[in-house]
């Protein structure tokens, strides 16, 4: 109870702490750029800027810096881990500093010595590392990790607990309880903790628990169902004396959305092909030198309306890699991967040939990643709603790739892809394209796969049982039901 009291004591000041932390680092970065601009670049300009011009330059730097920080999450103290926070921040710094140098060159129509800007970027890196460390420490002191009560249903809770365990700095599963214990007992226990995590439990009892948590001022974290995503993306109508939610449920995108999306695809894919053409030649040569096999690899995948197409990739595995094993996912330590294949997979350069698929119209720049027909057949048996992903074209990058991980389950990928489809806009596409470079080199995107923690119930061939052919939530609960037989009704979480 004492830790809960400490947690709530400073809770009301959390926004102030976050604002101050963001303001400090942004002001330091803008101040450093102002010093470099005034003492180096503005002095070396053919025609120097005066007061209002300097204000304009500083204002432009500030706006672009805030825009990139917001996009990449560089100011999310208390949300991202230290490494992710620094990484996200540095992407913004590199981007805005590179833009600023190009701007100087264009203004003065001559090349300038980049040394001052490079030194400034190094100082920025040091400042960011110190700032992130200091405010993470301050944040943890003021807002200790929350001790939570996890309420589970028939579904296995191991995957959810493994995910929460990756953020030991923010959350601790102090106790787990089955929903079978009853709402009264759960609410009585919840008062001893900082909140309740409502797992994948039946919607009816879940809604009652949500209302009880709201009524008794208990913080709650809820694992959403597909129906929740559909409801969240509906339009609220106030034409009666009670709110009405409209879900238009188009078959894919409207005609104008398709037109502009295709336009963006053609322009973006053409530019990227032009820029990356030297990489094509280098990668082809490296693969040929490895085993003299074909440089390209094609495979059947699914796109909009279930159409099958041949996806293009650079070959990263030995020839006929799946001849004996069949279609299986590959981890970083898979012996079938070529030496150059590890580099291509780590940098996602093996996906570059899919720019040709985009120009052909098989794929889009942004959309759900295309699944293999044989795997999709198994997944759809377990999760009939998995076909909802086929309402739009498959994509080179996507919502699930930005916000998910390599080992995100098919059910959770469906939730992410459905969020994208239901909230689609051309601005969302542009945002996801700009955010893609951030995830290219993030190791945690494959976190859990090599450690053996990754398990996707939807990839298990289901038994020929008609009861297993139902709604996704029910199917996933039944798939994990065996784990529930071994659990006690109430148990404390594993000690760290």
- H/E element sequence: HHHHHEHEHEHEHEEHEEHHEHEHHHHHE
Radius of gyration: 26 Å
What is the approximate shape? globular
Helical amount among residues, as a percent range?
40-55%
Could you report the average pLDDT, rounded to the nearest whole number? 83
Number of domains: 3
Instruction: Specify the number of helices.
Output: 18
Largest sheet: 5 strands, mixed
Provide the low-confidence segments as ranges.
Answer: 464-470, 475-489
Overview in brief:
With 496 residues, the protein is of the alpha/beta class. It has helices spanning 2-9, 14-44, 51-72, 82-108, 115-142, 158-165, 183-190, 203-215, 226-232, 255-291, 339-347, 354-360, 373-382, 399-403, 410-422, 426-440, 472-479, 481-484; strands spanning 146-152, 171-178, 195-198, 220-222, 235-237, 244-246, 296-302, 308-314, 363-366, 394-397, 490-492.
Q: Layout of helices and strands, plus pairs?
A:
Blueprint: H1 2-9, H2 14-44, H3 51-72, H4 82-108, H5 115-142, E1 146-152, H6 158-165, E2 171-178, H7 183-190, E3 195-198, H8 203-215, E4 220-222, H9 226-232, E5 235-237, E6 244-246, H10 255-291, E7 296-302, E8 308-314, H11 339-347, H12 354-360, E9 363-366, H13 373-382, E10 394-397, H14 399-403, H15 410-422, H16 426-440, H17 472-479, H18 481-484, E11 490-492
Parallel strand pairs: 1-2, 1-3, 3-4, 9-10
Antiparallel strand pairs: 2-11, 5-6, 7-8
